[in-house]
């Protein structure tokens, strides 16, 4: 990597600690609803914590571009609301039971409540967008939300498809995951009144970072620690999601190995999870997937190489460089 990871991601995020507190205040204020269950479910999933990378990305990029206006807090909260809505809907679609080390909202409150509160968060996010008075901001977030929804549907269509290739996989994660990273970084440039070239550079950073993040996440589904990750290992396989480690193992494996993988993918059975993990490791698929993530992280670093150097820019560079060390 071009940037040596000399400090932790936590140290990089410490730069925006006060900003994140301001975002939390915005979130708490805008979760209010006259329907008690709405706030109860929304607070349940938001209070679970998580990395908050998307709002953090917006705030770090705003700092790198020397934007200090209050709208950065509003839009960071909007991004978190959109992301939280997708989590609520994802867990229903995937029939997930565990997220961030505790029961999912759908497990605790039921599928109908999770879907409807997800809808509330989407609509509240759009109310907040309107408050900014910027048509450009609304366009970016409306487009991003639409692309995310398309990515979700495409992923559903791809489930249990053992023929999915790397291009198809990347198309889905760039729509479903990386698009909101891209929008978060782009929004900071818009708020700062940056040139179209700088705006595109920020967007490119966000897309590459989001892609790397998802690839690493997919690696950890076969190479992580369930207790540390707060979710069940093998969930992707159970849900029929064909991710990069599986795709590479299918390409590199022998006939018997491919048959074992194909059967696991098509049935969604985790009975052979240990055999699947062994094949993924023996074929070098985990390392190959991590190398693919490293390539995306380098693209992110290269994208913002022309930005002014300050503490926030350095933090963005460190964020990309250290993403590959992630184990949870």
Automatic annotation (TrEMBL):
- Give the protein's cofactors: Mg(2+)
Superkingdom per UniProt: Bacteria
Asked if the keyword Disulfide bond belongs to this entry, the reply reads no
Annotated PROSITE patterns:
POLYPRENYL_SYNTHASE_1 (PS00723), POLYPRENYL_SYNTHASE_2 (PS00444)
Q: Which residues cross the membrane?
A: none
UniProt keyword terms in alphabetical order: Magnesium, Metal-binding, Transferase
Which GO biological process annotations does it have? isoprenoid biosynthetic process
Q: Which InterPro entries match?
A: Isoprenoid_synthase_dom_sf, Polyprenyl_synt, Polyprenyl_synt_CS
User: What is the E.C. number?
Assistant: 2.5.1.90
**What is a GO molecular function of this protein?**
all-trans-octaprenyl-diphosphate synthase activity
Coiled-coil ranges from the UniProt annotation: none
Among Pfam families, the record links this protein to: polyprenyl_synt (PF00348)
Reactions catalysed, as given in the entry: 5 isopentenyl diphosphate + (2E,6E)-farnesyl diphosphate = all-trans-octaprenyl diphosphate + 5 diphosphate
**Top-level EC class as recorded in UniProt:** transferase
State the protein's purpose.
Supplies octaprenyl diphosphate, the precursor for the side chain of the isoprenoid quinones ubiquinone and menaquinone.
What family is this? Belongs to the FPP/GGPP synthase family.
Q: Which PANTHER family match?
A: ALL TRANS-POLYPRENYL-DIPHOSPHATE SYNTHASE PDSS1, GERANYLGERANYL PYROPHOSPHATE SYNTHASE
- What is the protein name for this chain? Octaprenyl diphosphate synthase
**What organism does the UniProt record list as the source?**
Melaminivora suipulveris
Q: Recite the lineage of the species.
A: Bacteria, Pseudomonadati, Pseudomonadota, Betaproteobacteria, Burkholderiales
């Amino acid at each position: 990597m071009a940037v040596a990871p000399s400090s932790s991601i936590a140290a990089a995020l410490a730069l925006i600690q006060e900003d994140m507190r301001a975002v939390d205040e915005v979130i708490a204020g805008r979760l209010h609803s006259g329907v008690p269950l709405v706030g109860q479910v929304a607070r349940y999933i938001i209070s679970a914590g998580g990395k908050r990378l998307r709002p953090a990305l917006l705030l770090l990029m705003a700092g790198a571009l020397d934007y200090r206006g209050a709208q950065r807090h509003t839009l960071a909260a909007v991004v978190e609301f959109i992301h939280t809505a997708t989590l609520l809907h994802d867990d229903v679609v995937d029939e997930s039971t565990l997220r961030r080390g505790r029961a999912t909202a759908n497990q605790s409150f039921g599928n109908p409540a999770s879907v409807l509160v997800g809808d509330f968060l989407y609509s509240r996010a759009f109310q907040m967008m309107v408050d900014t008075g910027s048509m450009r901001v609304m366009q970016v977030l409306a487009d991003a939300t639409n692309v995310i929804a398309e990515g979700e549907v495409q992923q559903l269509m791809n489930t249990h498809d053992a023929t999915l290739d790397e291009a198809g996989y990347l198309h889905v994660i760039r729509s479903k995951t990386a698009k909101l990273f891209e929008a978060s970084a782009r929004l900071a440039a818009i708020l700062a009144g940056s040139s179209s070239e700088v705006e595109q550079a920020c967007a490119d950073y966000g897309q590459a970072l989001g892609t790397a993040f998802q690839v690493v996440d997919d690696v950890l589904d076969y190479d992580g620690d369930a207790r540390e990750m707060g979710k069940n290992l093998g969930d992707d396989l159970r849900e029929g999601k064909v991710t990069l480690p599986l795709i590479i193992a299918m390409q590199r494996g022998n006939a018997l190995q491919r048959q074992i993988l194909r059967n696991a993918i098509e049935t969604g059975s985790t009975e052979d999870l240990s055999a699947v993990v062994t094949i993924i490791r023996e074929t070098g698929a985990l390392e190959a997937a991590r190398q693919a993530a490293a390539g995306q992280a380098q693209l992110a670093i290269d994208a913002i190489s022309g930005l002014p150097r300050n503490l926030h820019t350095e933090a963005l560079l460190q964020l990309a460089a250290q993403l590959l060390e992630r184990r949870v």
